[in-house]
Amino acid sequence: MPMRIAIASDHAALALKSALVDYMRQQGHDITDLGPHDESSVDYPDYGYKLAAAIADGDAERGIALCGSGIGISIAVNRNPAARAALVSEPLSAQLAREHNDANVIAMGARLIGIEMAKACVDRFLTTEFGGDRHQRRVDKLSNPQNAKESA
Question: Model-level pTM?
């Protein structure tokens, strides 16, 4: 089923972003490339915030965030309570991020993952449904930390 997907990166992940944009468009997805569009040095938080805003505003159903390690941009995306970004490095973590955490964004590190593994992560992320049930109350707390209880 085609989806509306936003993708953003920093300069370190430009080649991976380009490959994933082409790959997802070939699958029929509606891709919004939030940049950057050349190899000039940029700051990953700027692009992470743009991606999170696209999710929060409903412009995209899912998001792909990329930087050198995937760490920095995932932190930036997660500053927005509407976004649930998970750093993934293989398909199982992408699957569990969807099933257990209802992740709407995955982050990957271009310096740490190859193109084929990144495609496999994207495939699993886009085809896995949220498990709901016992996971729902936990996911609800991710966007509403004031509802979390102190553990014993």
Answer: 0.91
Annotation marks residue 67 as catalytic: yes
Q: Confirm whether residue 134 is marked as ligand binding.
A: yes
The 10s digit of each residue's pLDDT in 38-73 is 999 999 999 999 999 999 999 999 999 999 999 999
Active-site pick, 29, 37, 100, 121: 100
Residue 113, annotated as binding a ligand: no
> Chain centroid to CA 46: how far?
15
Closest by alpha carbon to 85, among 27, 142, 44?
142
In eight-state DSSP terms, residue 78 is T
Which domains, ranges and CATH numbers included, belong to the chain? Answer: 4-147 (3.40.1400.10)
Q: What is the pLDDT of residues 90-122, one digit of tens each?
A: 999 999 999 998 999 999 999 999 999 999 999
Q: 64 - beta bridge partners?
A: 7, 106
The answer to whether the annotation marks 48 as part of a ligand binding site is no
Residue 143 counted as an annotated binding residue = no
